[in-house]
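Checklist before submission:
- one chain only
- standard amino acids only
- sequence pasted in full

Submission:
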Amino acid sequence: MEFVIRISQFLLSLSLLIVLHELGHFIPAKLFKTRVEKFYLFFDIKYSLFKKKIGETVYGIGWLPLGGYVKIAGMIDESMDKEQMNQPPQPWEFRSKPAWQRLIIMLGGVTVNFILAYVIYVFIAFIYGDKTTKVESLKDGYWIENKLLQDIGFKTGDKILKVNDLKVVNDYDVRSNIIGAESITIRRNGQEKVITLPEDFLGQFSSAKSRDLFERRIPFMIGAIADTSSNKDVDVKPEDIITTIDGKPLRYFDQLDSLMTGYKNQTLNVELLRGNETITRQLKVDQNGKFGIQAALDYDRFAELGYFDIAIQTYTFGESFGAGGRDFVETLQKYGAQLKAIFNPSTGAYKGVGGFKAIYSIFPSVWSWQAFWALTAFLSIMLGVLNLLPIPALDGGHVMFLLFEMISGRKPSEKFLERAQLVGFVILITLVLFANINDWI
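Returned file contents:
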């Protein structure tokens, strides 16, 4: 079921982004009376799942979900239709249009991507508002479980004060500014300390087994009991919170392992918080020192119990335009910083480049419209930025040659454009293969 939910969100988001991106090319092409021969969601190599010709355009759905395309008459693109290009230019062809019209057609896709992301952020702000955790409310600091962070010098209980020179106010400030960070200022046992991150921190993080960073410390809330657990028939329920084990208080889940030392194959008295009532149960410990109980997360409930404070900022419809714009700009800047780090070999960030499996995995295992739209907005920005890269075969490559033509007054030869398109296509395929192979190593 988890796979079905994730793949459904992934395909829905991908389809939406592809169709709207290609509409960004299609609409100005039609406005400038340029013939569009094909409009496809996904690639139709050899055959199509569906196709129908309406007017001069064939609309279809391909079988290979790696993207989509519009085939514009008289344009050197991935179709490499040399036969058409060998014919005399026709007034309805892309190559016959003024350079400024061709530029608008080529920029249409990324323009739609950026507009879509902004609109999504506006409605997220209006419908859901902003929910943040104030770091000052994390009285006992962060949970540091990632061995990479431990090796660098972080410990559970550290309070984060600054990332570089940025004073941290919200938990989001920590996670969103870690890319490109050189140092983090913490407070430990009342004393401030600056921890310097290695230059290739992102590369090490990408290669690490754990992708956890600085996590809020939470109680042990019961989620589910394994069928193989000896406690499966005990009267404990999901959302019960274990507060005491054998008379010893358990405030945070990260204290569990040290507290369970020496209790293998024993039965212990355990106190649990159920709603506002404290109850006592006997739980068996297996040979591995475990209860056989999975933990659950409910941050709103944890906030109610005083583990941290969650601040909720709501917006009127008018205010949401400003809030959405702020989120759009921040996401764009952070993705730009991430891309810059990827192209800097010394950071090792290229090791974290992922393909379709990585994108699929960021969608939650339960359906959440808020998460779906937030991820779709981010992916729309990512698609827009990547398409602007000056690589032939991408929109940015076409824009680069068009700007050259407009500035110099000289149009690159069709032979040159064909060769550039081929080189760009090889580069693009290489990058796609690298990213998707990275998913599995």
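Reviewer check: The mean pLDDT is 88.
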